[in-house]
Amino acid sequence: MPQAFINRIATATPPHDVHDVFLRFGQLMLEKDKRRLALFNRMADRSGIAHRYSFLEPDPHGEVVDSERFYRRGSFPNTSARMKKFEACAPELAVATAEKLLAGF
């Protein structure tokens, strides 16, 4: 059997770092339940997650998570809607990754 080797690895991320917005949104949703808010904050601190990326631009006013209002308090998109959004954005990530892999050839 022939041996296979990995010669290159490349990754791409969506353009917006939304981790801080995600944390603030979660904290707002739990602000009336101090016990759950403390648990959320403890889990976030221990997660080791420093960045979370999205194609959705964060809302500059902080009223909702994203400027498209895709994620709204009390009206989250279902799995089908999220997958359709990802399907629309995924080719851009694939192209960016392929361009990084092909750089230099």
Describe the structure.
The protein has 105 residues and is mostly helical. The protein has one domain. 48% of the residues lie in helices and 4% in strands. The chain has helices at 19-30, 34-47, 79-102; strands at residues 16-17, 53-54. The longest helix has 24 residues, at 79-102. The radius of gyration is 18 Å and the shape is elongated.
Summarize the structure.
The chain has one domain (16-102). The protein has helices at residues 19-30, 34-47, 79-102; strands spanning 16-17, 53-54. The protein contains 3 helices and 2 strands.
Mean pLDDT: 91
Euclidean distance between termini CA atoms: 28 Å
Helix/strand-derived category reads: mainly alpha
Secondary-structure element string: EHHEH
> What Rg do the Cα atoms give?
18 Å
* Unreliable runs: none
Give me the side-by-side strand order of the main sheet: 1-2
Helix content: 40-55%
The domain tally reads 1
List strands and helices in order, with pairings.
Elements: E1 16-17, H1 19-30, H2 34-47, E2 53-54, H3 79-102
Antiparallel strand pairs: 1-2
Helix pairs in contact: 1-2
Keywords:
two-stranded antiparallel ribbon, 105 residues, mainly alpha, 3 helices, single chain
